[in-house]
Amino acid sequence: MKRICVFCGSSPGVRPAYVESARELGRSLVDAGMELVYGGGGVGLMGALAQSVLDAGGRVTGVIPRFLVEKELAHKHLSDLHIVESMHERKALMAQLADGFIALPGGVGTLEEFVEILTWSQLGIHRKPCGLLNLEGYYHRFLEFFHHMIEEQFAPPETVETLVVSAKPDALLQAMSRFQQPHLDKVGWALGFAET
User: Fold this and answer.
1) What is the CATH number of the domain that holds 23?
2) Bridge partners, residue 130, by sequence
3) pLDDT tens over the chain, length 196 residues
4) What's the number of domains the chain is made of?
5) What is the pTM of this model?
6) What distance in Å separates the CA atoms of residue 151 and residue 165, rounded to the nearest whole number?
7) Which of 83, 120, 124, 134 is the most buried (most CB within 10 A)?
């Protein structure tokens, strides 16, 4: 993995640990020789993460829609900034540029971006690792819901195996570097239930 795409909040969140862990992830990326790809923002966890990579001498590529640039939300000192016309273009370009994906705490946008990229993994569109940095137990309920989907037979049991989860940035990056995509025939699995 040379480039990691990180989805995270444009808010710092209520706990100081969120910002500090975002900064720690940035330093960990640089220490591992990896570049950051992210949404291009200069505020919240997004800004803290990007600035920590830059401060450590790393490279940061931002991808941001024009309407957010016009609201002056873009980070102004990135290594590279791609300005796109839509959120769809933003996600597609970030996916193309990255070798793996991480979600830090964030809101609906963070969740939407991460779930879409995880869906692409399940459908075999890519075989890149998808990690959750589960700071302060932020994603506990999200993971519980995955198990609920499996119990209710709306997702195959292997769904949770497509996720790499850790509360520590270094441990998450190490686990993602060892990740091997499980075999997941989602269509075949669904058809099996349709036939019963």
Assistant:
1) 3.40.50.450
2) 101, 163
3) 999 999 999 999 999 999 999 999 999 999 999 999 999 999 999 999 999 999 999 999 999 999 998 887 899 999 999 999 999 999 999 999 999 999 999 999 999 999 999 999 888 889 999 999 999 999 999 999 999 999 999 888 888 888 999 999 999 999 999 998 776 665 544 445 544 4
4) 1
5) 0.91
6) 20
7) 134
